[in-house]
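Title: Prediction job returns without error message
Component: structure pipeline
Severity: low
Priority: P3
Assignee: unassigned

Description:
Job completed but the reporter wants confirmation the result is attached to the right record. Sequence as submitted:
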Amino acid sequence: MFIKDTFLKFTNISKFSGCIAFFTNEKSEISHLKKYLNSSDHKNLTVLLKNKNKKKGLLSFDLNPNQKIILISLKKNQKPNETEKSGAKLTDFLKSEGAEVIHIISDTISQILKQDSIYEFLHGMRLKSYSFDRYKSKKESNTLKVYIASLKKFDKKIYDKFKAIELGVNYTKDLVSEPGNILHPDEYAKRLTQLKKIGLKVSVYDEKQLKKMGCNALVGVGQGSIRGSYIVTLEWRGKKSNSKPLAFVGKGVCFDTGGISLKPARFMEDMTYDMAGSAVVVGLMKNLALRKSKVNAVGVVGLVENMPGGNAQRPGDIVKSYSGKTIEVLNTDAEGRLVLADAITFTEKKFKPNLIVDLATLTGAIVVALGSEYAGLFSNNDNLSKQIHEAGEKVEEKAWRLPLHSNYDKLMNSKNADMQNINYVGGAGSTTAAQFLQRFILNKTPWAHLDIAGMAFSKYAGALNSSGATGYGVRLLNKFVEDNYE
């Protein structure tokens, strides 16, 4: 469903056809609607309400053949994320009804919440309306016209802020949803250069440059593919000062077969989303640029395709990373940490950032531990960890901190190199992966790692998203930036 929203000055509901939505309290009390409904319609609505289950949060009544009244009940002082969920619930209802037009009488929200809560409600509606039908010959044609009727002035600044977040989230979803034969590293890098037009400085480092730089861990992952391997940087300068940027690093394995350590065939088709960490970074940077965020930030993504070709990396190979540290590759399906190893050190050396947050669909172990409710959070800095956790709670993109400890290092030490890329002893799979990544922070930069393997893609619809790519991480990191660095 595509939503087209328009703000208009409230006149009289007799002029509105289709669905007409009002906000009420939890008890669905409608005394405040007398100013909007004529006495006969208000009386009829009161009678109809007596026979309805008021705990549903959304009630609908056919007022006449041309008008359907929808009552949306909200809790007093409810949190913004709950208001967004109410908006998403309305989108689901309108989809099921096949509705084409809705008039939302936005002034009625001020009876329960602050008037600006209408923008959070609309944000939830639009997030829930996302669908990916680019490759369907018969596309979803239903466009929902949403008219927000109010006597109060439309606040373009708030509206634009939410719109920027939605465009960032949806861009992330689009990238994650693309099939591997379309969004391979060459195409991905090409698309990112198009973001220059919104004010981002985009730099592409191709395979030849990466080899010269010594990014052998990242290049090694992609050497079995006919496609190139890349590091792409996206810079946003929202501050006039030359302050250190916030850095966000993403794993971009466009398709992951496992390489020579081949994955089982079942569900391998889902490995198109192994680049979700990079997509979150890109969506975040797009959002920051669109909303003219007052922050200096850089996004860095490592783009590869992990294929079992004739030139593919072998189990037992030893590579020298950009940091100078050597890695014994015992399993070519533990490739994401190799990509991030070079990308993290590159980011720290080149940009000397204030902090680094990396995101990756890194381990199946995190799904075993946390399911699809929390991302795994690992960090060398308590304050950074706290900031991310609190931001996640506010937007319900939750992250749970798990331990790092030097005792785990022995599980990743190699007899033949400085380290190995898997823990053969077993156990603590997500922690040992994070412990591996931590070795590539060379200058004690505050760093956090988000393992989003359980969060980036869902077979089932969530409160604010349909099934498929979730866009998890964009709203979390936007809130993290907004609350702590703007």
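Comment from assignee: result matches the submitted record. The longest helix spans residues 156-177.
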